[in-house]
Design brief:
The chain is mostly helical and 74 residues long. It contains three helices and no strands. Helix 2 crosses helix 3.
Amino acid sequence: MKERLLREVGTFGLCVQTEEFDETPAPEVELAIASRYLPADEAAEFLRSVEGNRHVLIRMRPQRWLSQDQSKAG
């Protein structure tokens, strides 16, 4: 659905957080990422539910860039 909507609208917003991990993160890294957004038990269930799903690569080129280094914020 996200792919279809991106194609229809032709624009996107993006928030980037730098993380360092291998191209295919270890299960504990995936769980840590999912746990940012879900309680631990729900994060584990979410990862089980998406295992083996089809993935889509979407390449985007921003026309404007606004950035802020949160590590330096007050």
